[in-house]
């Protein structure tokens, strides 16, 4: 199978670091502005920041948060098992689009852990287009809007949902996972059948 994989919030535990710096920025720079929608995956919508505020946050904290992240717990053993089973793994990520150095940060982390993918797509805003072009069988992402868009196109998805993010109804094309053990079980069950 060909598996599309997002990086932030799926391979990297970066979403936690991003949320910490979002709160620091909201409190210190924006005079304690509160989150308006916890279910939103992206800070722009979660806080309803202006474009200028987003740019200030990106310049001040995005790369710093990126450099403080590591791999998700359990990623390495499941990654290796998926490769051993012959699956093709394709990175499809927006990383590097807002702050170009974040791509370098990701490459460094992957190299430190000897992780290589079969193909890389960086700075991608239309993941559906890449999934269709690459004939992805299953896409793993943590953004419910992306999951919805890809699943609507009848491509199977694994929604790597953080506890506070919006819940989606599971369908033939959407399955919720919360960790890499869940992902391994999903592919193990497919392999058995």
Describe the model:
With 193 residues, this protein is α/β, with parallel strands linked by helices. It folds into two domains: 2-13 and 70-192, Rossmann fold (3-Layer(aba) Sandwich); 14-67. It is built from eight helices and six strands. It has helices spanning 14-28, 43-47, 51-67, 75-84, 101-112, 127-134, 144-152, 180-192; strands spanning 2-5, 88-92, 119-121, 138-141, 156-160, 174-177. Strands 3-2-1-4-5-6 form a six-stranded parallel β-sheet. Strand 2, helix 5 (101-112) and strand 3 form a beta-alpha-beta unit. Helix 1 (14-28) packs across helix 3 (51-67), helix 3 runs parallel beside helix 5 and helix 4 packs parallel to helix 8. It is globular. The protein starts with a strand and ends with a helix. The model has no long low-confidence stretch (mean pLDDT 91).
């Amino acid at each position: 199978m060909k598996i599309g994989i997002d990086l932030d919030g799926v391979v990297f535990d970066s979403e936690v670091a991003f949320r910490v710096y979002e709160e620091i920025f909201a409190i210190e720079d924006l005079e304690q502005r509160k989150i308006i929608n916890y279910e939103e995956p992206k800070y722009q919508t979660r806080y309803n920041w202006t474009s200028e505020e987003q740019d200030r946050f990106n310049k001040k904290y995005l790369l710093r948060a990126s450099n403080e992240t590591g791999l998700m717990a359990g990623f390495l053993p499941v990654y290796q098992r998926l490769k051993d089973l012959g699956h093709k793994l394709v990175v499809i990520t927006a990383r590097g689009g807002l702050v170009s150095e974040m791509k370098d940060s990701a490459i460094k982390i992957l190299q430190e852990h000897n992780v290589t993918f079969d193909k890389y797509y960086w700075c991608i805003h239309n993941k559906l287009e890449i999934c269709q072009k690459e004939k992805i069988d299953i896409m793993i992402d943590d953004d419910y809007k992306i999951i919805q868009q890809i699943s609507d196109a009848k491509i199977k998805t694994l929604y790597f949902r953080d506890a506070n993010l919006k819940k989606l109804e599971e369908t033939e094309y959407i399955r919720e996972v919360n960790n890499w053990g869940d992902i391994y079980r999903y592919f193990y069950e497919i392999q058995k059948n």
